[in-house]
Amino acid sequence: MPEKKIYVTQPQLPPLEEFIPYLEQIWQSKWLTNAGEFHQQLEYELAQYLGVEHLSLFTNGTIALITALQALRITGEVITTPYSFVATTHSLLWNGIKPIFVDIDSHTLNINSDLIESAITPQTTAIMPVHVYGNPCKVDAIQRIADMYGLKVIYDAAHAFAINLESRSLLQHGDLSVLSFHATKVFNTFEGGAIVCRDAAMKQRIDYLKNFGFADEVTVVAPGINGKMNEVQAAFGLLQLKHVDASIAARKGIDEQYRRRLARVKGIRCLPLPANATSNYSYFPVLIEKDYPLSRDALYQKLRDHNIFARRYFYPLISEFPMYCAIPSAAASNLPIANEIAQQVLCLPIYPELEEADLERVYCLIGD
Ligand SMILES: *Cc1c(COP(=O)(O)O)cnc(C)c1O
Q1: How many separate helices (H) and strands (E) can be counted in the chain?
Q2: Ligand 1 centroid to 107 CA: how many Å?
Q3: Nearest atom in ligand 1 to 65's CA
Q4: For labeling, which of 274, 277, 282, 304 is most exposed (least CB within 10 Å)?
Q5: What residues does ligand 1 touch, defined as CB less than 6 Å away?
Q6: What is the fold of 16-239?
Q7: Segments making up each domain of the chain, as ranges
Q8: Under CATH, which number does the domain 244-367 receive?
Q9: Residue 149 φ/ψ, nearest 5 degrees
């Protein structure tokens, strides 16, 4: 019998019958999109749940990133990391902004804040760090640099759902934080995203921008885009919110088992969980080091041959892709740590419904 396929993640889906009443309400109201009731309720409940004051929903995280840059009128150069999903820097190109790559820290795999200052030029207007795997960036150091040079900070917080740093939402740091609710994320609305901001005036501006720039029926205040989340997505989000704590708790159990079992495997290094922050256990990255008998790619292939689809997040680096590789800061010599980690990293399957027997198959293949 062929072995069951195990993917790196599986979308979190509540029981279908729980979703039907929401759909009935949409069918009755015939209000499908444009700040409907579910949209308003989800903005309110998510802000409460996440511990932030102002949040604006989007149709996906990438449009939210592009809009965040528009909202702050960012131009010129933005300092960012090559170790992320490609949407981080695509959002810069879509705004005609030049990404400037800075190397990562070998412990957190986030942008190395010590290297940011030397990448600042007269064209620099902002820093766009990523909380990779939900591990917080050095937010205080980054803010100090931003304040000193008059730069904005926009966090790509696509992995950072429900993370508290020193008992306060990580999303309160920076000028704006952008979330993704894509199907593969801890909290999903099929596709979706949000911008978290600090004040009502900024939320108003973001809300105009995501609705073509309309301020009222006859007034267009900005060249906005259509970034609206529809009522089906918002309703699904409200339902998901009821299940998300249980989902994170189940992921935590899997994270613990991996750590316990893999601790004994020579050449496999698990990334430590941050001491001063909560985790959402959305990824389980390991580094395949020199003393492991197989290369990272050989292990990746061995798992694939047994229908286990681990993923190399993040390989290739963003700086390797054709639209970025000619930028001077994209050179491998400027990004030695990111290049090394991209060759070693493998994200193992983790999701609430991953069964004991599935986990067993994963460890056995890695451990023997
Ligand atoms: C998922 C993700 C995005 C893009 O979000 P979408 O909702 O898929 O558009 C951006 N950045 C990072 C780091 C991501 O993981």
Answers
A1: 10, 16
A2: 22
A3: 10
A4: 304
A5: 60-62, 84-85, 87-88, 130, 156, 158-159, 180, 182, 193
A6: Aspartate Aminotransferase; domain 2 (3.40.640)
A7: 16-239, 244-367
A8: 3.90.1150.10
A9: -105, 5
